[in-house]
Design goal:
Layout (H helix, E strand, L loop, with lengths): L3 E8 L1 H5 L3 H10 L3 E8 L3 H7 L9 H8 L4 E9 L1 H9 L12 H5 L8 E3 L3 H12 L3
Antiparallel strand pairs: 1-3, 1-4, 2-3
Bound molecules: 2'-deoxyadenosine-5'-diphosphate and magnesium ion (MG).
Amino acid sequence: MPQIEKTYIMIKPDAVRDRKIGEIITRIERSGLTIERLDMAVLEPDVVREHYAHLADKPFFENLVAFMTSGPVVKMVVSGLGAIGKMRTLMGATNPLDAAPGTIRGDFAVDVNSNVIHGSDGPDTAKIEIERFFGEA
Ligand code: DAT
Ligand code: MG
């Protein structure tokens, strides 16, 4: 049975630069999910390294850190029934080349190096990421 969940969402620097914040938030709200918390920040490299620690051995890791610190991001806590999976569906595949039309990445991203949006991939990472980027609830 679907549960009320919270997920950590981040609009990445490319989408902020391209003035897509409004269109992305519109899609999230239109889907019935609720924006519970919202803030903008330029991330420190260390918090990005921690956030993407599962990719630390990849050749693109330092490019990813540079991209994610290249300008402000929009940090959000999004809640609702099945919010974690629902956001992953709205976002589309990691690589925009594989992301279906109608998804956020399918419509707004062209390249895996700058793919517009982050969303937690499960309940455990959601809790850790909300604490990482917003501190204790
Ligand atoms: P997701 O963001 O869909 O959860 P992930 O956690 O595997 O995917 O990767 C995190 C980010 O790292 C991803 O949004 C973009 C970047 N990334 C992943 N695979 C990549 C690749 N092959 N080349 C360049 N960047 C990549
Ligand atoms: Mg991920």
